[in-house]
Amino acid sequence: MITLCGFAVSNYYNIVKQVLLEKEIPFAEEYVTTGSKDEAVLADSPLAKVPFIRTPQGGLCESAVILDYLEAQYPAHPLMPSDAFAAAKVRELITFMNLHLELVARELYAQAFFGGTVSEAVQASVRKRLEKNIVAFKRIAKFAPYVAGDSFTLADCVAFSNLPLVGMATRAVYGDDLLAAGGVEYKSYVKLLGERPSSLAVIAGRKAAMTKP
């Protein structure tokens, strides 16, 4: 059985969790925080990052790698197109959302979510990059009705956890949701995805984790 290690407030943890649920792969969850010095953690995630998974073959870290492994190892309930180019377009979307949207917006999280502050210089830099990247994202995102087209894919699991964070962080810091302001109509899309059983389970797990003392 697969063990998913991390914590349910992490968006990347929830991406992997949603994929496991969508593919109906049996799994257990193990609470692990970032930066652990535990040798058992470092053996599977050398940078002590989460999420990572434990499999019968050994540990595996980095969420994008985990998604590819799950799709290859558990072909039932596929979340990738069989056509090579269409599959590459899904990976393109995943990479774009992770690197050019969420990772950029992450520089705002200290102020947006954790009571810290981000310098005006960083705020300006993030805004400039995000506004440019959002225009580019619109060129490849379809929302028809799913982000890659007419089928639910791995990219939707990424979008469901990452796009709302970008919107919330930018609204908290700038007073403006840069995704919406840039013409990305993602809120009705996220609402649609939120009706899926896997999404409801992810939301419930996140809420439970956030209310723990």
The separation of the N and C termini measures: 30 Å
Percent range for β-strand residues: 5-15%
- Percent helix among the residues? 55-70%
Which regions have little confidence, pLDDT < 50, spanning 5+ residues?
A: none
Can you identify the CATH class of the largest domain?
Answer: Mainly Alpha
Topology as a string of helices (H) and strands (E): EHEHEEHHHHHHHH
Structural class: alpha+beta
Number of helices: 10
CATH topology of the largest domain: Glutathione S-transferase Yfyf (Class Pi), Chain A, domain 2
- CATH architectural label of the largest domain: Up-down Bundle
Principal-axes geometry comes out as globular
| Number of separate structural domains | 2
Average residue pLDDT: 97
Please count the beta strands (DSSP E, at least 2 residues each).
4
**Arrangement of strands in the largest sheet:** 2-1-3-4
**Nearest-angstrom radius of gyration?**
17 Å
Biggest β-sheet, characterized? 4 strands, mixed
